[in-house]
Amino acid sequence: MVGSDSGAALPTAPGAWLGVLGGGQLGRMFCQSAQALGYRVAVLDPAESSPAGAVADRHIRAAYDDPQALDTLGSLCAAVTTEFENVPADSLRRLAGLCRTAPAGDSVAIAQDRLAEKAYLQASGVPVAAHAAVSQASDLDVCPASLFPGILKTARLGYDGKGQVRVSSREQALQAFESLRGAACVLEALQPLDYEISVVVARGLDGRTVTYPPSRNAHRDGILAVSTVDGTIDPAVADRARRHALRIADHLDYHGVLCVEFFVLRDGAVIANEMAPRPHNSGHYTQDGCLVSQFEQQARIMAGLPLGMTDPLCPSAMLNLLGDLWFDPDGRLREPDWAGVLSVPGTRLHLYAKSQARPGRKMGHVNILGATAAELHARVARVAGALGLSDA
Ligand code: ATP
Ligand code: MG
């Protein structure tokens, strides 16, 4: 099936090749899920060794915009996806001429630019924070006073809280804009957050959709620390977030797995923060907390197979393992106490086999299940204790 992603396509039989742009942990877990379904997987990534490259059946080592490498990948594979949103959209567009691409380059392009993303979210009928584009210093003179206090964010390439500065006045915003070296930015009004949630939605080639239960997300130093699905999100809020996520995917005629981060405000309003056109860290709980994971949905969509069940099996949580855990208080390398973690019932360990631990680097995660929310929280506390984390 060349050059089309039409819903009428026959499923691609196991044994065929599925490809992924990017060699990180999301690509690794996609490969593992696709292989469990019997597909062969190819990874395109420039690094000599990478988490996904290590498990792929084939590693095409080249830049993401290398036309020859893209053509090799597109000719080999029945379908190609991406594991990160900053892959050049043109690479996906080129691949679309050779094989099925899910998501499409145009969908990924929107998620690469916070301004395009916000405009798109609003056009889908989903509320976002009040904001203004700041492409030059003088834009700050005319933006509404209601945007302060606010957060100035670079429009492109921000992640894990990088490329953003909290500002309480125009003067501070100007300084922040200069510190970001004049990169195109968006100034967003600071929202009165109650808590943060995200929804993973999977949309097939035939337009069918499923959503996972929202996870409640806690960050530490701007990086996701824990995602919890324990039934404590107000059902009306959870329902609104799932409906928003569906609207976003439908409006875009999206094919693939998409995650939408939401802010739940103190008055109960649910507004979209940003979206990721791929499986998401906050959706890792689905590997053990649901029958079919977000990564398996990605593979099923690419293969034109039916989507799987998303109901939670029981309360669950995901605890991120950052490189900091590999260092003792004196800065010496150590191995975290895996036996201690795995001796807690209901735990599963997922490590990404990264060659070197660095503070802040995502090295793996632990999924934790409990029969009740209380049991889950007791187990999370025990895992955190085994890892030496005080406040998980
Ligand atoms: P990531 O890609 O890791 O999700 P990011 O760098 O793209 O993060 P955002 O998700 O936009 O950045 O923001 C990071 C965090 O900062 C949010 O999860 C939230 O806690 C806080 N934050 C961002 N924007 C706002 C806002 N307008 N009001 C209040 N808090 C905010
Ligand atoms: Mg975010």
Protein described:
By secondary structure, this protein is of the alpha+beta class. The chain folds into three domains: 17-111, Rossmann fold; 130-189, 2-Layer Sandwich (Dna Ligase, domain 1), CATH 3.30.1490; 193-387, D-amino Acid Aminotransferase, Chain A, domain 1. It has helices at 25-36, 67-76, 89-96, 105-111, 114-123, 139-142, 170-179, 235-251, 286-289, 294-303, 338-342, 373-387; strands at 17-21, 40-44, 58-60, 79-82, 100-101, 131-134, 150-154, 164-167, 185-189, 193-203, 209-211, 215-220, 223-229, 256-265, 270-276, 316-322, 347-351, 362-369. Strands 10, 11, 12, 13, 14, 15, 16, 17 and 18 form a nine-stranded antiparallel β-sheet that branches. Helix 1 (25-36) crosses helix 10 (294-303), helix 2 (67-76) crosses helix 3 and helix 3 packs antiparallel against helix 4. The chain starts with 16 loop residues before the first strand and ends in a 5-residue tail after the last helix. Mean pLDDT is 95; it is low at 1-7. The structure holds adenosine-5'-triphosphate and magnesium ion.
